[in-house]
Structure formats: structure tokens, C-alpha cells
Amino acid sequence: MPATGPTRAAAQPQAATGPAVRADTAVPVRPAKAPGPAMPTDTAVPVRPAKPTDTAVPVRPAKAPDTAMPTDTAVPVRRATAMPTDTAVPVRRAKPPDTAAPVRPAKPPDTAMPTDTAAPVRPAKPPDPAMRAGTAPPVSHAAPTGAAEPVAAPVGHPVAVQCAPSAAAAAGTAGRRDALRRVVVPLAAVAVLAEVGYPLAHGPARAALTVGAVVVFCAASVGHAVVTRGWPVGAALVAVFAVGGWLTDVAGVATGVPFGRYSYGGSLGPAALGVPVVIGLAWCMAAWPAYVAAQRLGGRIPRPARVLLAAVALASWDLFLDPQMVAEGHWTWQYPAPALPGVAAVPLTNYAGWLLAALALMAAFELLAGPAAAGAGPDAVPLALYLWTYGSSVLAHAAFLGLPGSAVWGGVGMGLVAVPLAVTLRR
């Protein structure tokens, strides 16, 4: 007890120097401790009523007894321990709101940020439909909604515009392939078989086989042009070469221009104005394979050069045809000289006339048929017929028909087109 007096006196100046709140809390403590000797027995009762003062200062003032208690002895510390336990409850309860207060206000901006960031993402999606009005986006727009959306697209929508032509193009391609397989390829095969049998036939049978081969070959050429390029191209082919070529021969027989003086026999069937009808078909049968071959070789060259190449491809065919027909007696030349060495029965004017006539007819065909004739297509049939004619003619003239001169000249002249064509197709 004597030791507690000085400690209390020493505690009073410390309380005076402390904050105002601690001085207030020290006041109720001093009356409770004044009866020093009675504190162990009497203080239990006043201590309990002192709790309202403790609860009145639940959070921050409770810290003052904590600082003051270390200055006291073990006795007040032990008694004061009940107060921290009592005050610890409100302190601990007060801490969660203190800690929760900064946490909870901090979370709303955190949660608001995702909503803020999500907001610009969602408004950013409307520009995508605007982009989908272009070329590639319609495909991405159709992917999530399924295949039914392009069908329901309004008239003029890019998806509707693109889907209908693609379906029509697929159907058209299938139809063309079917027509080529069922019609054009069999006609070409018959023409090849007729030419194979030509060296084996003799006399009238050979003449009939010649006419039949020309008719079937012409049907294959016109049929291919119609199937792959359309009816206008097929009609232009017949009008320019079957009719125009026949009229060119009519002028040649009547005037000698552009080929020279010659006349037909009666072995090639019906004739009009001195020219057999089959002659026009012969022009037509050879013109289409020559034209397609030139398109394949010179697709990137200027149009005039491409027309010239097609004319060369057609005129060089006559290096085989004319010597063979003259040898069979189908026509004769009035003035065969001058001629190529080894081919004495055909004048040079004939080949020059063929080149001029082929150039004029090819130019007319380009103008009449239009760009559709120059378009790419499944051209295996005419290209194969052109190369077949080249190879079989060289072989037949050299080995079966006794015409080695035309075999050489035809091999060189027609080879200017046929050999590069074969190399191109091989690649």
C-alpha cells in the first residue's frame, strides 16, 4: 500500500500531460481507488457501475487504461484486466466496421470497373454489324446464326447476292461436265476412230470416211463451244467459219483469190456454187481447236497477237490437209508452182491465202463471239484433238500415205503451235 501512493502521484502528471480524453477517463478511476484499504473488498461494487463509463468510451478512450495500467502495480493491472476484456468486446466489434469500411467502399469501384470496362466492349459490338456489310464479314455474320440467315437476307444483301450465283455456278458446272461426258467426248472419240481408219480404207469408202470424219469432228467442236462457252459462242463459230469459210472458198473458186486457181471434184458430197458443203464444216472443225490452243498459249498476250497466233494455228493445219486432199483427187490446182520442196502439187499462194483468210475469220470471230469465247473452261477435248491431228498426221503422211514432204513441212509448221502447247499442258 505505501508503494501505491507514489505511483498514483506519478500517474497524475502523466494523465495531465496526455490527451483530454485520457484525463476524462482518469477522473472516474481516481474516486474508485480513493479508499485504498477498501479497494480489495469495496471496489468490486463501484467497479461494476463504472462500466457505463467504460462503455461510454468504447473504442478510442479504452486505450488510455491500457497505457495507464503498465504504470500501476500488479494489483490494478489484474483488476483492470477485466476492463480490457469487457472493453475488448466492443473494440473487436468496432474493428470489423473499421476494416470493413475501407474494404467495402473500395470494392464498389472494383466491381464498377468491370462494369465500366464491359460497357465499352458491348457498345463496341454494334460497329461489327456495320463491318459485316462488307465482303468478308458477311461470312462471319452467317456463322453464328447458321445457314438459314443468308437465305433470309433481303434482296441486294451481299450474302444473298453471293449465294445465288455460287449455287447456279455449281449447277452449271455439273451440267457442263455431264454434257461433255455424254455428248462431246463420244463425238470426239468417233472422229478419232474415223481418222485412224482413213489409211486403211480405199476408193469411195475412203471418201465417205473423210466426209463422215469431218461432220463428226465439226459436231464435237461446235458442241464443245456451246457447252463450255454458251450458245452465242457456238452460233458465232458456225456463222464465221462454217458459213464464212465456205464463202471464202466460193470466192477462191470463182476468182482465184485468195488461194489461187483451183477446182473441186465430185467426191466430197453435195456442193453449191462449185464448193462442197462439207468444206465449210472442215473450216469449222479445225477453227475451234486452233482457237482454243492459241488461247491456252497466248492468254496473257495482247488481243491482236492472240488472234494472229490463232490464225497461224489454223493455217498451219493446211500443210497436212491440202497435200492429202490433192493426192486423193478431191481438188486440183491450175497453177501448182511455185511450191514447197517435196510438195509439188500445192502452190505457195494456197498457204498464203490460208493465212490471210484465217486471220480475217479469227478477227471476225473474236468480235462476234465477244469475251465469252476467250474465257477458260474444261478444254481437254479441243486441245487433245489439236494435238492428235498433229501427231497422227505426221505419222500417217510419213508412214501410210506416201507423203514425206508434207510430213516434214506440216511437222515444222504446225509444230510451231503444237509443240509449245504440249509442253504447256505437260507442266
Write the layout of secondary structure elements.
Elements: H1 4-17, H2 20-33, H3 39-42, H4 44-47, H5 51-56, H6 63-68, H7 74-124, H8 127-131, H9 137-145, H10 148-152, H11 158-197, H12 204-229, H13 231-255, E1 262-264, E2 271-272, E3 275-276, H14 277-297, H15 303-315, H16 318-328, E4 331-333, E5 339-340, E6 343-347, H17 348-369, H18 380-399, H19 404-413, H20 415-426
Antiparallel strand pairs: 1-4, 2-3, 5-6
Helix pairs in contact: 11-12, 11-18, 12-13, 12-14, 13-14, 13-17, 14-15, 14-18, 14-20, 15-17, 16-19, 18-19, 18-20
| Spatial strand order of the main sheet | 1-4
Enumerate the spans where pLDDT stays under 50 for 5 or more consecutive residues: 1-29, 34-47, 52-59, 64-91, 96-103, 108-121, 127-153, 155-163
How many structural domains?
A: 2
- Rounded Rg: 55 Å
Instruction: List SSEs in N-to-C order.
Output: HHHHHHHHHHHHHEEEHHHEEEHHHH
Structural class estimated from helices and strands:
mainly alpha
Mean pLDDT: 75
Q: How many runs of DSSP E, i.e. beta strands?
A: 6
**Amount of helix:** over 70%
Largest beta sheet, briefly? Answer: 2 strands, antiparallel
Tally of helical segments: 20
Strand percentage: under 5%
Distance between the termini: 120 Å
